[in-house]
Amino acid sequence: MAERRRVTIHGFVQGIYFRETVRQIAQRHAVAGFVRNFGRDRVEIEAEGEPAELDAFVDAVLANPPPSARVDRVELSVATAIGESGFIVAPTVRHDA
Question: Element (H or E) spanning 19, and its range?
Fold first, then answer.
């Protein structure tokens, strides 16, 4: 049964192809959802798929960031699966709080 997870990555993650890297990893793991910049120093990912693929996807994102990325903190939570297909780079959300 498909699950959906939200992953928020804090650090130096903008302007370095982080979102494109995440999109490519999602495609390799057959994960649906999106990645977007959120605020000044974080990226938000919502990913949906089979639990084992989601685990492998999150592990791959954290193990293979772009060379100039710096991951300071990661927040993981469960979201409601919506039956999404495909994975996109979504527009940036301006939130500087």
Answer: helix 18-28
Q: Active-site residue among 4, 5, 23, 37?
A: 37
Active-site residue (options: 5, 19, 23, 42) = 19
pLDDT in tens, the chain (97 residues): 899 999 999 999 988 899 999 999 999 999 999 999 998 899 999 999 999 999 999 999 999 999 999 999 999 999 999 999 999 999 988 765 4
Tell me whether residue 19 is one of the annotated catalytic residues.
Answer: yes
Say if 56 falls within a structural domain: yes
Per the structure, how many domains does the chain have? 1
Catalytic annotation present for 42: no
pTM to 2 decimals? 0.92
Q: Which residues pair with 65 in a beta bridge?
A: none
